[in-house]
Amino acid sequence: MERKAKQVLLTSAFASALLFMPTHGKAAEWKLGMSHPQIKEVQALLKAKGFFTYPTPTGYFGTMTETAVKKFQASVRLPVTGVVDAKTYAALKGEKKKENPSTKASPSFVAAEWKVGASGEAVKTLQERLKVLGYFTYSQVTGYFGTMTEEAVKTFQKDVGLAPTGIADRSTLAKLEEALRKKTKPTILLTIGASGEQIKTIQIKLKQLGHFTYPEVTGYFGQATAEAVKKFQANAQLPVTGIVDDTTYTRLLQVQKPFDPIELVADAAPLLGKPYVWGGQTPDTGFDCSGLIFYLFQQQGISLPRTVIAMWNAGTSVDAPAVGDIVFFQTEGTTASHAGIYIGNNQFLHSASSTGVTISAFNSPYWSARYIGAKRYW
């Protein structure tokens, strides 16, 4: 009896497994968490079309595969599910298929107007489109046009140069379809091991948001950067991969954080004692006076001119300096030739040729006699 029961169980399990096996070259329904040799084929097809960016097909259906499938589905106007069903597989293989009228951008969808309070399949389609482009961040599409959908529409409208009304009108829907056609593959995919100026930009933005806590911006994508990216993705309700794809990169650059002069001063603390180097503007090489200011403001996302005279000619003059303002001195010639950052208590931070990066008394006889003014850049 026990053997019969086991046989029944095994037979049932075997039969169940057969339901998920491909037959006659057709695809089963592949989705997140599954492993199978045919998933390698799916990944290879996605890779050939520019959607799967992992170096090699693995046969495991992870989040990168799911994201690639969603982007492919959006590009061919299939339901954006992330699941490889028969229609998705046929589209990947280039086989002819009947178009699905519920997901194709029909004239009625583009011509309609959707706003807060609307609901239905058309709103689901709208949310799917916005989700693929990185604007709709709710965990699932609901088919109800609420405030989150409205905000997603507004952000998209701003990005494409339309009035941010929050109403998905004819112009907005047309722009949405245009954006989806252009989004055929990720333009950015940065992960551990990458390096360069783009990584510096990412680290600076992550540092401003409090996610990247490494003392210096290095331009190298290491474990600390990956962890910072994961924190940002979690906060932004994006897939937490630690990899900077185009959606993560775009969202990261969109986030603005108000300038905080206290953070500017805090970033300067580890630089005390760095040597004075003519033309220097990094912690590794050292700093001249304007290079130090340029570097510290860059960490806060503010771009300044590189030379003292150019800084002096920019900015807004202030009667009395506050923390974070730049103070200027005429140590030689007939105009500004030296500068530092006012840090409060009649003190300023600067890089002097005789001391390197240091703090000096603003009201000392030497500096007070040469002070010519202060300017603000935030």
Automatic annotation (TrEMBL):
Key words, A-Z: Hydrolase, Protease, Signal, Thiol protease
InterPro entries listed in its UniProt record: NLP_P60_dom, Papain-like_cys_pep_sf, Peptidase_C40, Peptidoglycan-bd-like, PGBD-like_sf, PGBDSf
Gene3D superfamilies: endopeptidase domain like (from Nostoc punctiforme) (3.90.1720.10), PGBD-like superfamily/PGBD (1.10.101.10)
This protein's record includes keyword Transferase: no
One Pfam family here: NLPC_P60
Occurrences of domain NlpC/P60 (ranges): 258-378
Signal peptide positions on this chain: 1-27
Keyword Protease included in the entry's annotation: yes
Family: Belongs to the peptidase C40 family.
Protein name as it appears in the record: Putative peptidoglycan binding domain protein
